[in-house]
UniProtKB/TrEMBL annotation:
It comes from Pelobates cultripes. The keyword NADP does not apply. Keywords: Aminoacyl-tRNA synthetase, ATP-binding, Cytoplasm, Ligase, Nucleotide-binding, Protein biosynthesis, RNA-binding. Residues 851-907 form the WHEP-TRS domain. Coiled coil: none annotated. PROSITE patterns: AA_TRNA_LIGASE_I (PS00178), GST_CTER (PS50405), WHEP_TRS_1 (PS00762), WHEP_TRS_2 (PS51185). Residues 812-849, 892-912 are annotated as: Disordered. Its EC number is 6.1.1.10. This is Methionine--tRNA ligase, cytoplasmic. One of its GO terms (biological process) is methionyl-tRNA aminoacylation. GO terms for cellular component: aminoacyl-tRNA synthetase multienzyme complex; cytosol.
Length: 912
């Protein structure tokens, strides 16, 4: 193994300490600056650990975990939870504090306030135990990871906070270990935190808004100590009669608000019709909104989820010219593309519409007239960029140049993606037409403006009330406040285009409405196309809660401009109460690019052979809630194989197989003892936290509760060993029945909790267990929904392993050099039948002698392995899994030989 680190990077402390503690034979290479070491990443990424087989690990916690395991030690679930907390909460806070202190020059005491909540969380958690380390009496990988993130801020142990005694004692224990001391000093070199200044200066200024909770002890059910009262209450709820359980709401269209009920309307940012959405677009809007919509329905809340394609503007005109079609034909074509993608991802819109409708024209023009009558519009002559070659004024999105504020070289004509500031296109330095790359000229044109300064007071009053009552994400609050703080300016709402909603005013009838005035009105017009009673949703703020889902770059238009228009219209419009914005999802530490063939786009995901539910799970697992995150093929494989296959799938399958094998397919009698009741209480606590988190739309965090329950279940089965008890005395057999019955009911609960995240898998579990449909309602109670005597169906594995060869093939396929994104004809493509995820995609290996030889050897080896398992009478689930691998290899071999991948019909022995 070789560990490569960058001098001057604080991330090196963690891996150097882990290497010294648990892998003394690792070769260490130090580079003066970050260099590209991992070949398949688009950008340098250090530290990196090159394994003996040539593979790389390039996230610090993955490296530390690997080194820890390679020393023969085991990682507990609690260690994994701490590592997750360190990566998502502590590390970003510590880097922000370091940046504040070292780069911005703030006092250390002031900078440390950024991590104060994290330190309190750590101190309280340590205070609950009597051992000196985070997890047990011995040092764990979690101790090293957490310590290394904090250490640069406390290089002098004398500066530790006196009021956090448990934290202070723990921190000194770890700091005094020789391996940790040497690792830190080899990078600090006596300079303290200033040794990292060059590294920190290259980072964008980290933003940690005050509203973001670094950690919340009250909500952390995973570390909650269960009281006897908790356990007794959970046991009582478990035994409640199901006849009084709430029944699932019968959903009939059109869905309309109901008096006295919780009425929730959900929208996700309207995707622009020309852009085939990539994974980042999907998780940032429609998938996140879908999870919340499905959750709301499980809570029996009256819920409507609408979306549609945004179809007006220059981009449509340009695409129409490129393809020799009319703008309307282009919209029809690509609306079908979007529809097919979202159907494959199983997005449960109640209605998916579009903006090129008469309702859009009628409602947009009505809002415009109301603003005009109330004197909230201005007229002014503006200078615009016009491309003489294309013979048109350029819409903002079709101009690119250097930002006048931060010098970012790819700023758009309306906003800079790097610094977030608004830009007038004429202010760009070195502007270029994105269509033809020519330099545009400045020309004058008369336009209409929304008088935002005149609306600012009523907008501010509404924002104050909404922030106090609603759950906006921290980035949405921060971005909105920064707009208000800088002072609102009049905003142009018209454009010199032909394809758009016409401006109904003399002198402007050759113009159309600008997209950021017109497009958000699409939410209203799409609802109006769904039902002629749309005003019951959109002019009913007293009864309706409106949730908007989007990426952070869309926030100002939904939090300032659109609400200002509706407030100025003075027509009792429903305004957003919960604005849910994600950060950005990157692709393997780079950006998605259709033109360069980098990244997975919605129309490609289905062709990878990986089912939609696996994509949904992974995107939600890495959902960029508090900071940007990245899609990683290696991490996708890891999460599929560990969290889904070995954790969740393993538990559900084992529980079902025990019922089939030991109890003839019927749920056995259950007699709960204290251990079982404690487990029921733990599951109930996780369910309660799951509900709390999803009510606050903390989607990624709530997913961890599902995985925690299956981890509890696996541990419960492993400790109680029902496969042994069933062979013992009557008392032991009764114990096997109780353990199996509790486990199968945990599986039934998981099937309900999984529905927002993995609806297909959830349905398969319910089908296998023959779960009654009426249990598809979530409360805070964990009830015994599959009582003794309930017969289940046939049980089979839920997930299949993703192999390294398959993932490497996909990594290369989507790493660049794909077609340039001309999606003509996409809507004519039939959605292929998705093969099992272990079937490698067809590649150019047909006829390759070396590849054929390797595959033949792999098939022979795997065949021998399966025969040995059968001979040794291994568990059926293990055999089935290995048989699937063998079939996958045979299919890959058939493809390489140029044959049909379908296996020949098997001829079994005739029964006598």
């Amino acid at each position: 193994m070789k560990l490569v680190i960058s001098e001057g990077s604080p991330h090196g402390i963690k891996v150097l300490a882990a290497a010294a503690l648990w892998a003394g034979n690792v070769e260490i290479q130090r580079l003066q600056q970050e260099e590209k070491v991992v070949p398949f990443l688009s950008q340098p990424k250090l530290p990196a650990l090159q394994l003996d087989n040539g593979n790389f690990l390039f996230t610090t916690n993955a490296i530390c975990r690997y080194l820890f395991l390679s020393s023969g030690k085991d990682i507990t679930d609690l260690s994994n939870q701490w590592l997750e907390w360190e990566a998502t909460e502590l590390q970003p806070a510590c880097i922000a504090a370091l940046h504040s202190h070292v780069v911005q020059g703030k006092k250390k005491e002031e900078a440390i306030l950024n991590i104060q909540k994290c330190l309190i969380h750590l101190d309280q958690s340590l205070g609950k135990e009597n051992h000196p380390y985070i997890v047990t009496d011995s040092l764990s990988v979690a101790d090293v990871a957490v310590w290394a993130s904090i250490y640069p801020l406390f290089t002098s142990l004398d500066s530790l906070p006196d009021n956090l005694s448990s934290f202070k004692s723990w921190f000194k224990n770890v700091s005094q270990l020789e391996e940790c001391q040497k690792a830190a000093e080899s990078l600090l070199k006596g300079q303290g935190a200033s040794a990292f200044k060059a590294f920190l200066q290259k980072l964008p200024t980290p933003v940690l808004p005050a509203e973001k909770p670094a950690c919340n002890e009250e909500e952390d059910a995973a570390v909650k100590t269960l009281s006897e009262e908790d356990i007794a209450a959970a046991a009582e709820a478990w035994s409640k009669d199901l006849t009084d359980a709430p029944q699932a709401r019968l959903r009939q269209h059109p869905i309309l608000p109901v008096d006295g009920e919780r009425n929730i309307m959900i929208t996700s940012a309207l995707p622009y019709v020309n852009n085939v959405p990539h994974l980042g677009n999907i998780i940032g809007s429609v998938l996140s909104a879908d999870v919340f919509a499905r959750y709301c329905r499980l809570r029996n809340w009256n819920t409507l989820y609408v979306c549609g394609t945004d179809e007006y503007g220059t981009a449509t005109e340009t695409k129409a010219m490129e393809e020799g079609l009319t703008p309307q034909q282009i919209c029809d074509k690509y609306n079908a593309v979007h529809t097919a993608i979202y159907q494959w991802f199983n997005i449960s819109f109640d209605y998916f519409g579009r903006t090129t409708t008469q309702q859009q024209t009628t409602i947009a023009q009505d809002i415009f007239h109301r603003l005009l009558q109330r004197d909230f519009l201005l007229t002014d002559t503006v200078e615009q960029l016009r491309c003489e070659k294309c013979q048109r004024f350029l819409a903002d999105r079709f101009v690119e140049g250097i930002c006048p504020f931060c010098k970012y070289e790819e700023a758009r004509g309306d906003q800079c993606d790097k610094c977030g500031k608004l830009i007038n296109a004429v202010e760009l330095k070195n502007p270029q037409c994105k269509v033809c790359k020519e330099t545009p000229v400045i020309k004058s044109s008369k336009h209409l403006f929304l008088d935002l300064p005149k609306l600012e007071e009523r907008l501010q009053k509404w924002l104050d009330q909404t922030f106090a009552a609603g759950d906006w994400t921290a980035n949405a609050r921060y971005i909105t406040r920064s707009w208000i703080r800088d002072g609102l300016k009049a905003r142009c709402i018209t454009r010199d285009l032909k394809w758009g909603t016409p401006v109904p005013l003399d002198g402007f009838k050759d113009k159309v409405f600008y997209v950021w005035f017109d497009a958000p009105i699409g939410y209203i017009s799409i609802t109006a196309n769904y039902t002629d009673q749309w005003e019951k949703w959109w002019k009913n703020p007293e009864q309706v809660q409106l949730y908007n889902f989007m990426a952070k770059d869309n926030v100002p238009f939904h939090s300032v401009i659109f609400p200002a228009c509706l407030l100025g219209a003075e027509d009792n419009y429903t305004l957003v109460s919960h604005l849910i914005a994600t950060e950005y999802l990157n692709y393997e530490d780079g950006k998605f690019s259709k033109s360069r063939g980098v990244g997975v786009f919605g129309d490609m995901a289905k062709d990878t052979g990986i089912p939609a539910d696996i994509w949904r799970f992974y995107l939600l697992y890495v959902r960029p809630e508090g900071q940007d995150s990245a899609f990683s093929w290696g991490d996708l494989m890891l999460k599929n194989n560990s969290e889904l296959l070995n954790n969740l799938g393993n538990f559900v399958n084992r529980a079902g197989m025990f019922v089939q094998k030991f109890f003839n397919g019927c749920v056995p009698e259950m007699e709960l003892i204290s251990e079982d009741k404690r487990l029921v209480a733990q599951v109930a606590a996780e369910l309660h936290q799951y509900n709390q988190l999803l009510e606050k739309v903390r989607i990624r965090d709530a997913l961890r509760c599902i995985l925690n329950i299956s981890r509890h279940g696996n541990q419960y089965i492993q400790v109680n060993e029902p496969w042994k008890c069933i062979k013992g005395t009557k008392e032991e057999q009764k114990r096997a029945g109780t353990v199996t019955g509790v486990a199968i009911n945990m599986s039934a609960l998981l099937a309900v909790m999984l529905q927002p995240y993995m609806p297909t898998i959830a349905g398969i579990i319910q089908e296998q267990l023959l779960v009654p449909k009426e249990v598809n309602v979530l409360t805070n109670d964990f009830r015994c929904t599959l009582p003794s005597g309930h017969r289940i169906g046939n049980v089979s594995p839920l997930f299949q392993k993703l192999e390294n060869d398959q993932i490497e093939s996909l990594r290369k396929r989507f790493g660049g050099g794909q077609p340039d994104g001309d999606n003509s004809g996409l809507q004519e493509k039939a959605v292929p039948k998705v093969p099992a995820p272990t079937v490698a995609p067809e590649t150019s290996t047909a006829g390759d002698p070396q590849k054929l030889k390797e595959l033949l050897q792999q098939v022979e080896k795997q065949g021998n392995h399966v025969r040995e398992l059968k001979k040794g009478k291994a568990e059926k689930t293990v055999i089935d899994s290995e048989v699937q691998k063998l079939l996958s290899l045979k299919k890959e071999l058939a493809l390489a030989e140029g044959k049909s991948p379908e296996p020949p019909t098997q001829k079994g022995k005739k029964k006598k």
